Amino acid sequence: MISLAFKLGILTALLFIITKACDFNLIIVSNTGNDYFVQIKTPNGTASELFHFKKSGQKESVHITGNNCFLNMTTINTYKVNPDGARGQRLYQAKAILDGMGFIQYSLLADGLVAIDSSTGVMYAFDTYEGKGKK
């Protein structure tokens, strides 16, 4: 049987998350030497700069703040790099509902897919992926 104190603690935590603004870092770390572009769209619709990943271990981050982040998806798009160095065709799109205070880290994999690696203080749900060439 779950104690009343435990239930109240869970309810308090949920209310805190719902009523507070989100404030977290979304970090992407490359686990490949392959060349990719990555762009992040935050829950408020703002797009990050176009990050160019060129080597394994490269790390880029976006600070996400706002109210009600759980109402909209955060989107990460990965793109090929054309021979002229420009952004090419989209490879993958990852979407998730992210909210909380802390950080969430994604790994950029050899095929251009990103996957959640770790998270502290950030909850995530409805993590979906669309494959190559989708618009």
Topology diagram in text:
Elements: H1 4-19, E1 22-30, E2 36-41, E3 51-53, E4 59-66, E5 74-81, E6 87-108, E7 114-130
Parallel strand pairs: 1-6
Antiparallel strand pairs: 1-4, 2-3, 2-5, 5-6, 6-7
Reading off the top of the CATH hierarchy, the class is best stated as Mainly Beta
- Written as H for each helix and E for each strand, in order along the chain, the element string is HEEEEEEE
Q: Hey, roughly how much beta strand do the residues contain?
A: over 45%
Large-scale geometry = elongated
Over all CA atoms, what is the radius of gyration?
Answer: 17 Å
Q: What is the CATH topology classification name?
A: Mutm (Fpg) Protein, Chain: A, domain 2
State the CATH architecture. Answer: Sandwich
Structural class: mainly beta
Q: How many individual domains?
A: 1
pLDDT < 50 stretches = none
**Whole-Å distance between the termini?**
49 Å
The helix count comes to 1
Helix content: 10-25%
Give the strand tally. 7
Structure explained in plain terms:
The chain has one helix at residues 4-19; strands at 22-30, 36-41, 51-53, 59-66, 74-81, 87-108, 114-130. The protein has 135 residues and is mainly beta. It has one domain (22-130): Mutm (Fpg) Protein, Chain: A, domain 2 (Sandwich), CATH 2.60.270. Strands 1, 2, 3, 4, 5, 6 and 7 form a seven-stranded mixed sheet that branches. The protein is elongated, with a radius of gyration of 17 Å. 24% of the residues are buried. Keywords: Signal. Residues 1-21 form the signal peptide.
Keywords:
single chain; about 140 residues; mainly beta; Mutm (Fpg) Protein, Chain: A, domain 2; 7-stranded mixed sheet; 7 strands; about 10% helix; elongated
